[in-house]
Amino acid sequence: MASSSSLPLHLCHVNKLTIFINRSHALLHSVAIAFLIYYRASFLVVETKTTHIIPWVLVFASELLLSFIWLLGRAYVWCPVSRTVFPERLPNDDKLPAIDVFICTTDPDKEPTVGVMNTLLSAMALDYPPDKLHVYLSDDGGYTATLNGMKEAWKFARWWLPFCRRYGIMTRCPEAYFSTSEDDRSDSLSSEFIEERLKIKEKYELFKESVTKPIEDSKVVDADAHTTFDHPSCIEVIEEGLQDNQIKMPLLVYVSREKRTSHSHHFKAGAVNVLLRVSAVLSNSPYILMLDCDMYCNDPTSARQAMCFHFDPKMSPSLAFVQFPQTFHDTSKNDIYDSEVRSAYTIAWPGLDGLRGPVLSGTNFYIKREALCSSSIQKDDLRGLKNSFGSSNELIKSLHQSYKPNLNNGGEYSNMLLEEAKVLASCSYEDHTKWGKEASFLYDAVAEDYLTGFTLQCKGWKSVYLAPSRPQFLGTSTTNLNDLLTQGIRWGSGLVDVAISRFCPLIYGPPRTSFLHSMCYAELSFFPILYCLPLWCFATIPPLCLLNGIPLYPEVKKKKITKIFGNFRFTCLTSLLVSIRIQNYAVNRFCIIGHKMTTWG
Hints:
The protein starts with 9 loop residues before the first strand and ends in an 8-residue tail after the last helix. Residues about 220-225 and about 580-600 have low confidence and may be disordered. It is globular, with a radius of gyration of 27 Å. It has helices at about 15-45, 50-75, 115-125, 145-165, 175-180, 190-225, 265-280, 300-310, 340-355, 370-375, 380-390, 395-400, 415-425, 450-460, 480-500, 505-510, 515-550, 560-595; strands spanning about 10-15, 80-85, 100-105, 135-140, 235, 250-255, 285-290, 295, 320-325, 325-330, 365-370, 410, 410-415, 460-465, 475. By secondary structure, it is of the alpha/beta class.
């Protein structure tokens, strides 16, 4: 029998039938589009009426734009893959690498502190060695309520974490666990477990009360002391009750970067870069888990699943990050706004995974710290490193993975390192450095995750996409039109920023990565522009032409009726084949995960 060390940690599955159908459909549909373009072009050559030419040109231009964006999207379905991992084959815990968890929040009014603390608790409760897990919460507003919430979460975690470990709880977000009557344990009816569960639930209710009360009391205090956009940096290691060594707890750090109205703060990218610097001098873990403050860990094994790829000696040297899908627990019954972005996580990302890897999606990914700094680390001289990373000697030391900060010295946390961390969190530290330009998350676009992931892959790094049957992370989504439009504008503007910048995927990408991979990134970045104009034209021009008797489509004649309907049947047949494939995929996901399946007639 083969030993576990000789067995693969993961498998990549390629469905050749799916690839054949996808490529055949792309070929046939391209032929149909070519005939349409030929018909439009030939009409414009012979047409002499100006009243007919203008609407035809607009419709023709719209069809060309839609055809172009459709053609770019074919790269997604060129070679889709799926993956399976075997975390039980990983080495012992003492050989696992350390992980830093980054959680970002801004305003407790928009992001309730109780929800943020639930995300934090679920991250602290990951099935991973506690001494190798470090959780950082970035509070961009510098609210006292958030800091108090972390202290209360630390106290509750001393009860919650042992409970989860002792009974093997899978749902380790307290709110999600206690809000359902079902339990994921086989012996959930035992008297000992029921008694312990009730005890923990009572403590959780007290925890929620203690977290929500300071919010009302601290708003006035915060308003008097400083504003959201003007306050000093604050770094605090949460360590209350640390003298109880029987309970192993992850490191928990509160980070509030300095913000001044005279400095640009670069939104989430700026906050994440501060976390990168602060964590480098406090824990310096080689891997980082990024989470939105409303995206809790639904499966405690996600870290071990990600390590199945990072431990692969063939893949690990060039692997930048492992991306998990975004799944939501609060979508409406029919999800009419497609808040789960199903097309991205069921079609686009698996297709990208078959090329060079999926897009960095803002949350739910385990990324290698080295990947974010590798281009600047290659500078060997001290002056070059300081020009890239700043003047901090401790930060320069942390660039070497062998460097381990001595944060806890005899039970007391090093004041020197905490003071150094405050300097690294100052708003002026990045001045005259490469932060946001080469090192770390880039500032060139609002969609910092998309742009950073694209540039990493252009530098030779790869990524993988893993979508297990049980969602690893669950979050809250947009459930009304106003929030959807606000989110869409933010995403769309960020993607367009990249499309019209020097990082345009069709220009910047092909010399550095595969053309198909560049096509995928181009489809995402050009989508907001190339879709809105054609849809506007098709919504207005055909009705106006119909009212004014201007033909936009060929008249049906007896001699040509057979040919026209033949082309019509041909186009419908190719679309039907793809629809059947998508429906089969939806049925399979429904059977595996148990999600409600919605079809559109």
